[in-house]
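User: My collaborator sent over this chain with a note saying "see what the structure looks like." That's all I know about it. Can you take a look?
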Amino acid sequence: MGITIHHKLGLQKVYVKDALDNAERTAEYMKMEATRLKMDFKIRRLSPYSLLIDIDGCETLGFTFKSVDEFLKDHDYLDFDERKKIEQGYQIENFPQNEKYYCYDFCKTQFSKNIIAHKWVADLIKVVASRCCFVEVGDEGDYYHSGKLGDAQEAIKENGLMIAGLMGTFEKMGYQTKK
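Assistant: Without extra context I'll predict from the sequence alone. Here is the result:
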């Protein structure tokens, strides 16, 4: 449970490295600011096609692009329609089968100590998405689309109250919960 930002991205293989290089450079600037704000921030570049970023208590923000075959093998839970869209490249013209690379992931930001972490996650997704020819992003905090950090703060606050209420209910039922 918690506020998350989901992303589905599609990009031609030849552009993946440049898109992730750009995101990594942006993350390096954010890391300098995180150090000043005493926030945890870690960048891991696993390959030209994979960049992982840990920001201050959020789940890992992952950009791991894979070929269509690798992607579908690793995402066998996708429904038939979604699999078909990926196989057909979401009808993207001039996007040959062997050039399509996809990345689907999410990052929970609910438990960061600083709301700026939610902003940075969204902003890093925007950096990568700006290079993609297929993009779907959902932000339960609404910041990604609205640009209003107050929207994310309010959503995180409301979700926190709901989580606290559920925990209280479980405790009343006799379950032990971590605090």
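A starting point for your reply to your collaborator: The CA atoms of residues 69 and 125 lie 23 Å apart.
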